[in-house]
Structure of PP2C family protein-serine/threonine phosphatase:
Amino acid sequence: MDEITGVEQALRRAAPHLLVDVVADALRKHCGALRVELRLADYALRSLQLVERVPQTTPPVLVHDSPQGRAFGAQEPYVTRGADAVSVHLPVTVRGDRMGVLTAALPPGSDLVPLLPELRQVCEALGHEILVAERDTDLYDLARRATRLTLAAEMQWQLLPGRSCVRPEFALGAHLEPAYAIFGDNYDWSASADHLTLTVTNGMGEGIEAALLTNLALNALRNARRAGLGLADQAALADQAVYAQYRGEAFVSVLLLRFDLATGEVEAVDAGSPRLWRLRDRSVEPVSFEAQLPLGMFEDTAYETQRLAVRPGDRLLFGSDGVYDAASPDGESYGDRALARALTATKLLPPSQVPGAVLRELAAHHGDAPLEDDALVVCLDWYGRQDGHGSGSPEPADA
């Protein structure tokens, strides 16, 4: 335990670009590690890229066909044994957000039983320090890139809170495609002691213009939320900000929800195209709200909240119009039916893996041609409070 405390302290003192070196030195001293490497998941969640001084010098490994990918997907240590070393692959994850995999090659015959808990603690400490270090270095961000991001995609990814989040009351996962050329779709979440606020956004247009529009709307929503405004007023303030800039020539579709963590009651403002489906007791159905005007379409639009309730065991899937409107080579839209099948087929996966699985199926439906629009999927599993609360009240007729 003293060794782990020493590693944590050394990580906090280290220069931002030397975190992997600190861990490697500590593991060489503590357990005779022969080699230590850190791989981070790329933006598309298809490969694990080595963190190294010159990015992309070493070939990546695939998430779905590698020992490192096994650890990343299962979120459990995975061990491979060779003649010269025993390699332990461990997930690096912070508050449910899957970042990558740390691999430690140990001498043959190493006793892994006492080492694994300590190595997992090291991974957790490393993940937290990477989040802090990213303020001061591009090293880790560059390692995530399998190819260059467009400028619009650069702007959009910088807005995101993460790709997954886990709390006792819920678990969230989200993904965007095309990951390296996304422009208008986005999502945001914020959890406090009592509430989870979730936003699914679709800015009109293409390229940097769509990214600028979404950036304005999302930051206006954050500004209103952080000022303590209610959900309807958050939408109204963002509506005013977008209209003031674009005078109705551009607008943003948004689905805005606020979950009460104690009761499972949800307030919602549906201002546009993002849609919601619910998996409950093996049954998938769309959840419809009364549609209201997108943000920025007209001056001084008034918004009203609607209500529904979630129950422990519910899974919610949010999708942008780039998902359900995506057409096959024969012109058939992906639509509600295919989304219902995908939601049922992925029911055993954790929320962090569901968006990627749905988007892979969408890509197969769409064929070889690139997606014509952004595609965004967010998955939320609701657990509720474990003290007997969180069961939710009966749902209103319109939910």
Observations:
- The radius of gyration is 22 Å.
- Residues 388-399 have pLDDT under 50 and may be disordered.
- The longest strand covers residues 97-106.
